[in-house]
Structures are given as structure tokens and as C-alpha cells.
Amino acid sequence: MSDQFEPKIVAFFCNWCTYLAADLAGTSRMKYAPNIRVIRLMCSGRVDPQFVFDAFAKGADAVLIGGCHPGDCHYQEGNYKALRRVHLLKRVLKEMGIEEDRFRLEWISASEGEKVRSVVNDMVAKVKALGPLRLTPRPFPQVIPAEPSALVAAMVMGGAQ
Amino acid sequence: MSKPKVGFYWCASCGGCEEAVVDLAEDILKVVAAVDIVFWPVALDFKRSDVEAMKDGEMAVCFVNGAIRTSEQEEMAHLMRRKSGLIVAFGSCSHLGGIPGLANMNDRESILRRVYRDVPSVANPDGTLPQERCEVPQGHLTLPQLYDSVSTLDQTIKVDYYLPGCPPPVKLIAEAVTAILEGKLPEPGSVLAPNVAMCDECPRKDSKPDKLLIGAFKRPHEILIDSEKCLLEQGLLCMGPVTRSGCGAACVSGNMPCTGCLGATDRVRDFGAKALSALASIADATDDTKIAQLMEGIVDPVGTFYRYSLPASSLYRRVQHDGNGDSRS
Fold first, then answer.
1. Contact, B273 vs A52, CB < 8 A?
2. Are the beta carbons of B276 and A95 separated by less than 8 Å?
3. Which of A99, B96, B198, B232 could form a Cys-Cys staple with B240, CB 3.0–4.6 A?
4. With an 8 Å Cβ cutoff, is A49 touching chain B?
5. Confidence check: pLDDT of A146 > 50
């Protein structure tokens, strides 16, 4: 195993734009850092802030949200909701001691496979520079359910709010 | 048949929960008639040794309020657990961490420095800080350890039921006591309050527009609050949509926005995340600059959204970049 730190990045991509862009990057044989774990949701507006905190709490070093460009949302305004939440989330995460570069929102349309590559590579480089996110260990055993939690089940079900 | 034995204990709390028990008023006589109160440090002269002398499980139920913040509170929580059949986490602090839980934005050292040295009203020329052990001519004195992080009761011991609220509404306490006495308790682990949002019992419910959009977030002192209209519509940060009902909309009836003391309903795992989500979604702005400007109206996001629930949240506490936190037994 290499000594170099390989960050774990959880990426929430919307079904209609960014996920297709990631798909395009793949079919176009573009090479980019393998550090992201993509979770497909129907809309960036479906990214409940609970998912973001949960990802960090369960070991993600960074979280990336990808959605349609403003005005292009399949559900009219889901990405605006995402944008507003992200504004507040960034402030909360900063106050909680989580560096800004660990959380990012990007608008990536279905044709922008190249942008997936550049965003992911850039984010991986920045998070590598920061090092692992070391949450202060809890003084009690943290219960991580063995079965998929209701939250994960909800993520799998997808659907915009 | 002897009456069931009941205990009350307090950990990191303000005493408001004890007050809430007294607020049962005449009904407390019915409680006293039905049970034997065998431990209640704030009101009765029983000692820890009296509890230690009990058989395991001798108490039918113990109501524990307050968060867990010191080694003594942790020990007492374990003792109460051993001696009691049921443990009810009583009030926001034991349920979710409560106001003391906001200490998780800091750590032990900075809190002690602030409270005992830096506060302008403190006269402490030698800069003395509380010590766990101190030598005096008569021998040595000890104090419990203050932990770096505040925990909820159920992060410390197994909890059977939760009575939410800051303090728990009298109606919920009375219903819980009745349920215990009549043996009609719901499934273990339940919160003994309705599982719907506070808006459901809000007297202003009908004034809430179908599509709620907030053009500017306001703080209560900045506006003259209309006593009839939905507080969210007036731009106030009302936690009603994310908070569990059961309080009879007490704060809203007093013309102040809900602060979320009862915690969220069962479907929500992280109150603050959900509150943030709900309020951000109804902000009336779509471009970056306008959103940023609007969000500045929320002065203290963590203190607002996690006012009562930071230790129970996914992140539990602020990341300590220079420390490793507590090591507890």
C-alpha cells in the first residue's frame, strides 16, 4: 500500500446533467482521479444536508455536489434549492472546523465530461494537500448500522423534493 | 402492594426541568400518592449512598435531566441505570445535548480560560483554574473531571424513553407519568410526544401562505412582530416546520419564534441539517450575490439550527485540529 494519502470523496450527482457528464467522461476514456464515490440522485435539490453531514461523519474527506446549470434544472428549480442550502452549509461546515475545500458545488451539464475530469482532479489535489479529515474521536462507541439506514434507503429511492 | 419507587436526577442542566416537575402543581400530589420518590437531590435529602444501597433495578423509573459533561455525571448516569428499571431522558439536554451541548463548539481548556480568566467581571489575579486535585493543609481535595465534549444521556447509557422539551411541557410529563403508572408505554426508545411538526398545532397555521418565500431573514428585536401572522412569513427563523409538536405552540403563542427545543420528529436524524434545509429552501433568491446577502441575515447558523442538538448531530462536535478529545472510561 502506498503511503500517499488517497482521499475519499463522496459525490452526489444529479441524474440529468452531472451523472451523464460523468458517464460521458467514462465513455470518452478520459482519465481522472479515482477518489470519488458517485451517488446518483434525481436532482441536486435532493441532496439533503443530512447526507452531507452523514458522509463526513462516516469517513468522507470531502463532499462534491454536481447539478445542472442554473436555469437548466429538469425540475425547474431544484438546483436553486441546492445552491441556497450550499451557501448555508458552507458556513456551518466552516464553523464546525471543516475546511472550505472539502465541500464543493459545481454545475456540470451532460456535455461537460471534461469538466467532471478537471473538477474532480482539482478537488482531489486540494484535499490531498489538506490531508485526511480527522474528526475528533467520540468518547463513546459510534453506532453505525450494519443494515442500510433509512437515510441510505432514501438516497437509493431518489426523487426530487 | 408497595408503591413503585421513582427517582429524579440532574446532570448538566439549569434546574428548569426540576421546575417543570413542580409545575405539575396539584397533579404532583397524585404522583406522590401513587409512587415513592426515593431520590431527588434538588428537593429531598437522599444521598448517593442511599441509591448505592438499593438493589439493582429497585427503582421502577428514573427521570434523568441534563447532558453528560463531567465524570461524576457519567458515574451517576451508570448508577441510575443499574438501579432503575426504566430510564427516561428528561428534557432537551439529556435528550439531545441541549444548550450545554453548544460547548462542543469549544473545548475544555478554552472554556476554563474564558470563564475563570478572560471574562471581564472575573477577578483572578493568579489565573487559577479549577483542578481535579488540589492539596490543602487539611489533605487533598478532588473535583470531577470536566470533559472536552458534552454528550447526550443515550450516548452514555441505554435510555428507554425520552421526554423532550426545554423544559418538557407539563402536559407531556403528566401523560408520561400516567402511561408509566398504567403500564401503557409505547415501544422502547420512543419519544413521549406527538410525532408531527409543531406547525400542526400552531395557532397561526391558517395564515401560512401556500408558497412560503422569505425575502429577508429578521431577528425578533428588529421588527414589530405581528401576533397573528405566520412568523416565517414575517422573516423570523421559526423552527416550527422541523420541530416536534407537544408544547401547545407555547413560544409562538407568546409571539416568539419556535427555537426547536423538542427536537425533530422520528423521520429526521439531524435536526440542524433539516432546519437548515427547510429555511434555505424558502429563501427568495436564485443568484449567488442575492443568496449570500440574504443568508447573512442568519447571524449564527450553528447556534440557531443546533441550539439544542449539537451533541446528537452527525458531526457531534467542532473538529479539534490540535487535540484528540476525551478518553473516557
1. yes
2. no
3. B198
4. yes
5. no
A83 at the B interface (CB within 8 A)? yes
Per residue in B8-52, pLDDT (tens digit) is: 999 999 999 999 999 998 888 888 899 999 999 999 999 999 999
Domains within chain B, CATH numbers bracketed: 5-99+148-181 (3.40.50.700), 198-298 (no CATH)
> Is A120 in contact with A64 (CB distance < 8 Å)?
yes
Residue A150 has pLDDT above 70, yes or no: no
The upper half-sphere exposure of residue B76, i.e. CA atoms within 13 Å in the direction of its Cβ, equals: 27
Cβ distance of A98 and B319 shorter than 8 Å: yes
The CA distance from B190 to B263, in Å, is 13
Give the number of other CB atoms < 10 A from CB of residue B28.
Answer: 16
Percent of chain B exceeding pLDDT 70 equals 97
Peptide bond connecting B167 to the previous residue in cis, omega within 30 degrees of 0: yes
Q: Rounded CA gap, B321 and B316, in Å?
A: 15
Tell me the shortest Cα–Cα distance from B325 to chain A, in angstroms.
6
Strand partners, B63: B8, B88
Q: Which structural domains are found in chain A, ordered by start?
A: 9-133+140-157 (3.40.50)
